[in-house]
Amino acid sequence: MNLTSKAGLQAGISDKELADHVWQAIMDCDSIGQKWGGSPPGPPEGVMRWRNSYWWGWNESTVPHESTLGSTVPVCIVYGDQDRTANTPEELGPVLHFSVPKLYKAIPKAEKLMFRVEGWDHNPVWERKAAKTLQHMSWKWLKDKKVYDVESGSWFMDADGVLTQVD
Q1: 35 vs 46: CA distance, rounded Å
Q2: 7, 35, 99, 159 - which has most CB atoms within 10 Å?
């Protein structure tokens, strides 16, 4: 099990009012976690609990073993340039190091698209503007197999939505 404090969650959400609402919704759903933790002395402020992740499936070592990704299964990856969860330092070694660009490059077939988005972290679904953009991008990919009239390649999207090809 993993744990995050209220301060830890709020540090990753730029809209502080939204962060408070997200924290309260999480606490409302977890009667055990809400009774734990808290940095100041006094009543607990709760902790956010979530399951452990298993390092299997999609990684740069396993992706090339099957020829389905990027062909039978088209792939669209969207990640934030501030994401330090899905992009960890190489010094962590082969078990804990992860790189979204390396994952993308390891997909063997051509039907793949990747966007690195300026200003986004690991939790764009919690950010109002980012969530709306991510939802739009996902919808366009699932519906049309293209996003912003782009069908493949690696792209950087700046804060104004301007795309620049990265390859």
Answers
A1: 5
A2: 99
Give the integer Cα–Cα distance in Å for 1 and 32.
Answer: 13
Provide the token pair at 40: 């100041």
Written as one letter, the residue type at 28 is D
How far apart CA 112 and CA 31 sit, in angstroms, is: 41
Q: Concatenate the DSSP letters of all residues of 47-112 into one string.
A: -EEEPPP---SSSTTTGGGSS-BTTTB-EEEEEETT-SSSS--GGGHHHH---HHHHHHH--SS-E
For residues 76 and 74, give the distance between their C-alpha atoms in angstroms, rounded to a whole number.
7
Local mean pLDDT, 10-residue blocks, the chain (167 residues): 80 82 89 80 79 57 70 89 88 84 88 94 82 92 94 96 93
